[in-house]
Design brief:
BirA Bifunctional Protein, domain 2, 27 helices, globular, alpha+beta, Elongation Factor Tu (Ef-tu), domain 3, 5 domains, eight-stranded antiparallel sheet
Length: 938
């Protein structure tokens, strides 16, 4: 029986024999800006389908890494609860770019499945597109005829083995418009007898699985709703690798159909399961959940195994491609996936750090075919370990919150209120209207309405606001909150949760800063601006035509046919300067931006510019400012080079700012940069500056760019790209402005290095005049400090160490004096204690350095008094702090420290509380302290 590695290689070898170019998997970081992750095999070939680029080969085959865990394709919440969903998977595919079409695609699919892999022919079914009412195009007679001939040749009835599907099942579209076409799917019947005669095809049965989709791209969906035949026709196929591997493993190479089919039965997952078993002492049971709302113990065990195995694949492959967990967008999706895995792993009683231990078995398994895993094994392990440790610190607090929410949910259930009240009196105290208290403090959702919506009889409701707090603050996945709730027979208000999610999305939308620009009465379309500002000779005295104006809220914008002004993009700020109009009027350009469709918008003061359209203007860029910007932009490229050389080629740009006075560079890296590394990076850049190497740029087709050219993940590049080459060592795709030789930078100094999110760091640096000014200021400050310390600059560190040591000793002596003083106060306070029913009560005002010292004094007093109640108060600045301690004997007598402090702080204009044995609180009315303390012991 073939294992997964042999199966994958067999697919690639088969299509190589059919003259396909075997291409590597594209990165999980998509080139399309509207995708979170690469989620289909066709993603990297979209430019060929759209005609934006010419395909370098007529036919290709590959296995593509994919993640579906966000946006339109989001399988995350289902992973683990069934046996076929994944967040990470491989998509095997073969492609034709205006080469072969339906006949070959169908013939080769059948040949590979039945002749090479040995799938039983009688269990296979093909689907063909048959439009329903309102569906596009005609019945796919061509595909039907090919399939009919194949099944007849095999002695199988086409009427049984060819099934029809409408647009929903058998018509593929890239989007509302663009390339599209009918498709044929191959399904396999995995029932024990295999005699369903195709009745389970597309019937959502786990026993009849789609394994291959053959898409015939032959139309273009037009904006008017019509479908125009394409001159160039393409083939786009996708086969779920995990599905096929799972089918072969489950059926023992098609000899045994007694077990339910599962993608998780192949060695892709079983090898990881062995490591989970070793850590947990439990085994994978191969169960298929019948009802995710009512899991047996064994089913839950297997759900957790599947979650962990799937999620370690997703995290490891993502990090290897430079996508790390973080706080926003795709990075936050990864953080959610990791936290989901950790939370589920805790239900197997796995020890903290368990998830990181799954990295090595995953890399051992997949690294031979995906070398980026092996190359970045340590980085993957370090990133996951850091995230896991960070989350471990919040889990316990989240579980404590869930327990409190659980209690509140029980209280809210009116039919069981009396029973629940008895169980919760110890927590909330007696004589309190708990139902009123909960509704006032935690919102209101009608219990009966929730029961009607969800059709569940429960012990109570977890409100949407509470589920959202667990999700947003503590990282609890919603499906885990639901699982914990079901175990306690609680309902989660999913409607309320989604409402809170929408509020968060709305807050994010409002936080986006947008420039509103509207067109001023222009009948003709304004043509795109041609940028002419790379040559420094064109920065002043540049003449061109004014072709349009736009108006904004506080400024106007002039559009010219050509412009030497760089429009803000790619991190580089926009140019400033002036424009002299045809009538001699000179207007200041305070910024240059782009509207996203090719127009350079030169921001000027509001005015009447309509009459100037069509006339020639003279443009002058602020050259001194531009030169400063160029230095910082070239320095950014050199800094990126030095970071990758020092830390590793996993470093990926995550944002930048290039301004006249500094640069800011954000990048993906899993750990803080050490001072030694930072010094090395700075030295490397300055060494290259001294070489005064030339800086060159040139344009090439995107498909022909040199392999050593660095592209920014997430950027969408056109068919032609601009390469900036600095000295032959730094090569990046970039449309910005640069120096002509590195010597122009003068000097680079790093100002700071810090973390801005998990896995994302930021360096701020300066060069040129700004670096000189920084160095001069630091030099002056160093000498000023030396003067203050009466020493030479080289002796400052030694002098400071002596001063700090002396200060530490003085603080120690002061602390001893304060403790001695506090002990003396304690001795005099003991004499004021009064006896009440065998319990000594002591209440007094103390003068100590801080509230922590007051707490220590209270503990000492209680030890000396024995069975007692100790109440102390002190004034610290404008605030009053009070505390109470109750011995076990006092608590047994019904005295609670929390109640004492609650009553005491109410008289001091504050609030407080705590446990029966110890409580603290505060107030703002220091004048009331003496009287309040006397009342306690009266």
């Amino acid at each position: 029986m073939m294992d997964s590695a042999a199966l994958r290689q067999s697919f690639l070898d088969f299509f190589k024999s059919k003259e396909h170019q075997i291409v590597p998997s594209a990165s999980l970081m998509p080139s399309s800006p509207n995708l979170q992750f690469t989620n289909a095999g066709m993603n990297q070939f979209v430019p060929y389908f759209l005609g934006e680029q010419a395909a370098p080969w007529p036919r290709a085959a590959d296995t593509q890494k994919c993640i579906r865990a966000g946006g339109k394709h989001n399988d995350l919440e289902d992973v683990g609860f069934d046996t076929y969903h994944h967040t990470f998977f491989e998509m095997l595919g073969n492609w034709s770019f205006n080469d072969y079409f339906k006949a070959e695609a169908i013939e080769w699919a059948w040949e590979l499945l039945t002749k090479v892999w040995g799938l039983p022919k009688e269990r296979l079914y093909a689907t063909v597109y048959q439009p329903g009412e309102g569906d596009p195009a005609d019945f796919d007679q061509e595909a039907y005829d090919f399939w009919k001939a194949i099944f007849e040749k095999e002695g199988l009835d086409p009427q049984v083995h060819i099934r029809m599907g409408n647009k929903a099942d058998n018509f593929w579209m890239m989007g509302e418009t663009g390339p599209c076409g009918p498709c044929s799917e191959l399904h396999i019947d995995l029932t024990p007898k295999g005699d369903t005669k195709g009745e389970l095809v597309n019937a959502d049965s786990p026993y009849c699985i789609e394994i291959w989709n053959l898409v015939f791209i032959q139309f273009n969906a037009e904006a008017n709703g019509s479908f125009k035949p394409l001159k160039q026709k393409h083939i786009d196929t996708g086969m779920g690798f995990e599905r096929v591997a799972g089918i072969i493993a489950t059926t023992k190479n098609f000899t045994d159909y007694s077990q339910p089919p599962s993608n998780y039965n192949s060695d892709l997952f079983l090898d990881i399961f062995k490591h989970i078993s070793n850590m947990s002492g439990r085994s994978y049971g191969f169960t298929m959940p019948e009802n995710r709302d009512d899991l047996s113990g064994e089913e839950l065990n297997d759900v957790i195994f599947r979650v962990l195995a799937d999620h370690i694949r997703t995290l490891s492959f993502s990090i290897a491609d430079g996508i790390v967990p973080g706080n926003a967008d795709r990075n936050y999706t990864l953080r959610r996936i990791l936290r989901r895995a950790v939370m589920f792993g805790r239900r197997l009683d796995l020890k903290p750090g368990f998830f990181t231990k799954l990295v090595d078995p995953l890399v051992d398994k997949m690294g031979p075919f995906f070398p980026e895993l092996e190359a970045r094994r340590d980085i993957i392990r370090d990133v996951i370990s850091g995230e896991e440790k960070s989350f471990d610190r919040t889990i316990d607090r989240g579980l404590q919150l869930f327990d409190r929410i659980n209690e509140r949910a029980l209280v809210r259930d009116l039919p069981h209120f009396e029973e629940n009240l008895k169980n919760l009196e110890k927590t909330y105290g007696t004589g309190v209207d708990l139902e009123k208290h909960i509704r006032q403090n935690y919102g209101h959702t009608d219990l009966e309405e929730l029961r009607r919506i969800y059709g569940i009889e429960s012990n109570g409701v977890i409100y949407g606001t509470e589920a959202f707090e667990l999700y947003d603050t503590y990282g609890f996945p919603l499906d885990l909150t639901e699982l914990l709730a079901r175990e306690r027979n609680l309902v989660v208000d999913l409607v309320g949760f989604e409402a809170e999610m929408e509020k968060q999305r709305e807050r994010a939308r409002k936080a986006q800063v947008k420039t509103v620009i509207s067109v001023v009465d222009q009948d003709e379309k304004i043509h795109s601006t041609q940028f002419a500002g790379y040559d420094v000779n064109d920065l002043t005295g540049f003449t061109t035509e004014l072709i349009g104006t736009f108006t904004g809220e506080d400024a106007d914008f002039l559009v010219t046919a050509q412009s030497p002004f760089y429009a803000e993009m790619g991190g580089q700020v926009g140019d400033t300067g002036s424009i002299t109009l045809a009538d001699g009027t000179k207007v200041e350009v305070t910024n240059t931006i782009t509207d996203g469709v090719g127009h350079h918008l030169h921001q000027v003061a509001k005015g009447d510019y309509q009459g100037q359209i069509g006339s020639h203007v003279t443009m002058d860029v602020d050259v001194a400012r531009r030169r400063k910007i160029q230095r910082h932009h070239s320095a950014t490229h050199m800094l990126n080079w030095a970071l990758r050389e020092t830390l590793g080629d996993h470093v990926q740009q995550a944002g930048s700012l290039v301004s006249p006075d500094h640069l800011r560079f954000d990048f993906r890296h899993h750990a803080a940069i050490t001072p030694e590394q930072l010094e090395q990076i700075e030295r490397m850049v300055n060494g290259r500056i001294l070489e005064n190497a030339g800086v060159q740029w040139f344009e090439v087709p995107f498909s022909d760019k040199p392999e050593d050219v660095v592209a920014v993940f997430g950027e969408k590049y056109g068919s032609v790209v601009r390469v900036v080459d600095i000295g032959g060592y730094s090569k990046e795709l970039c449309g910005g402005a640069h120096v002509t030789a590195t010597g122009e930078l003068g000097l680079l100094k790093v100002k700071s290095e810090s973390a801005i999110a998990a896995g994302t760091r930021r360096i701020e640096a300066v060069c040129g005049e700004a670096a000189f000014e920084m160095a001069s200021q630091n030099y002056a400050e160093l000498h000023h400090m030396a003067s203050k310390l009466s020493c030479k600059p080289a002796e400052i560190e030694e002098r400071l160490e002596k001063l700090l040591a002396s200060n530490k000793e003085l603080e120690k002596q002061l602390r001893a004096m304060e403790q001695k003083q506090a002990a003396a106060q304690g001795g005099s306070l003991i004499d004021t204690a009064v006896d009440k029913d065998g319990i000594k009560w002591l209440a007094g005002k103390v003068s100590v350095a801080n509230p922590n010292d007051m707490r220590g004094l209270g503990v000492d007093l209680q030890k000396k008094l024995g069975p007692s109640v100790v109440i102390l108060g002190g004034v610290f600045g404008p605030k009053v702090t009070v505390l109470a301690l109750c011995s076990p004997e006092a608590i047994a007598a019904g005295i609670k420290a929390g109640d004492i402090i609650k009553n005491l702080t109410a008289k001091l204009g504050g609030k407080g509380g705590g446990k029966p044995d110890f409580a603290m609180g505060g107030g703002s009315d220091a004048s009331a302290l003496d009287g309040a303390l006397k009342e306690v012991v009266a």
